[in-house]
Amino acid sequence: MDRNADAPWSKFDPETYVDNNYRTPLDVDVLIVRLMRDHFGRCFSGGIPDSVRGVDVGAGANLYPALSMLPWCHKVLLLEYAPPNVAYLERQLAPGGYDAAWDAFWEVLAEAPAYAAVEPRERFGEIVRVERANLFDLDGRRRWDIGTMFFVADSMSEYPEEFEAGVRNFMSSLNDGAPFAAAFMKESVGYRVGEHRFPAFRVNEARVRESLEPLAGELEIHDLHHMVRPGHEGMLLALGRRDTGIAAP
Asked: What is this structure's pTM?
């Protein structure tokens, strides 16, 4: 069994990952983007508080979680550990704007008026920043008002305690009532990017619910029966809010 520290993160190939997963939008990602868009829209339907700070934990080579937070946030931080992914994210902040591959996902978001009112490349460049950080090093201090974590806690280790720590550290970083979206590969046995294999911890809906419920309110879990590669049984999307007044264990 491989722990997170055993995986070849310095050799992760973000361009191959984008080509395999996002260059041509998959139906399941379009569905996820719609569900997440509508969830965040409901959460902010009463108005947007001042100085909303967002975070995408383990951003990797995936911009659509960050794009989903653009209308609501004053600042968005992309936390990522793998050096090649950090470099990829920093390139997306270059003056020319992010890669055209992400335009199709913005088109789905922009079906909602709050998103249609935003010029995404300009706003992305203005409010998004990248920081190299390890999910395990988050200190439990609540600091963000909206958060996403996509295919991270379940896709970095084969050890259950590291999966649980990943979920707990993400949720513990959110302020009371913060809307969140978290996605997981269902029953994944690991995955390859280019020439390198990366570990995964097998989860199902019950395991995700058990991990999130102590810290989440208004929790809904969507079991999406889409297969995108061999070695998994679908995807799970968890939507909710950080529960008010519950301390992290």
From this structure: 0.93
